[in-house]
Amino acid sequence: MYDSKQIAARIKDRAKQQGKSVKEMLSDCHLGINTVGNISRGGDILTLNFAKIADYLDCSVDYLLGRTDNPEINR
Q1: pLDDT tens across 10-23, in order?
Q2: Average pLDDT for residues 31-36, to the nearest whole number?
Q3: Which of 47, 59, 46, 49 is CA-nearest to residue 20?
Q4: Which of 9, 38, 57, 64 has its CA at a distance of 20 to 30 angstroms from the CA of residue 70?
Q5: Within 10 Å of residue 39's Cβ, how many Cβ atoms?
Q6: 3-state secondary structure string, the chain?
Q7: Are 41 and 56 in contact (CB under 8 A)?
Q8: How high is the pLDDT of residue 39?
Q9: Which secondary structure element, helix H or strand E, spans residue 52, and what is its range?
């Protein structure tokens, strides 16, 4: 249903678009340095932590999940 590698790639791409490194984003969100790597490998992430990432990257959770290509939808 959801492609974990695609989710991780969207997080990385969105961070890059925002001019921020993944490491900086994770630190600012108080998340572990391996969070995106764990997502890429199919690991689970708490819903609240996923929402923190979406809020930090100024996009919707639906965008990060690949349910839409518009980062503005459902923000």
Answers
A1: 999 999 999 999 99
A2: 96
A3: 59
A4: 38
A5: 21
A6: CCCHHHHHHHHHHHHHHCCCCHHHHHHHCCCCCCHHHHHHCCCCCCHHHHHHHHHHCCCCHHHHHCCCCCCCCCC
A7: no
A8: 95
A9: helix 47-56
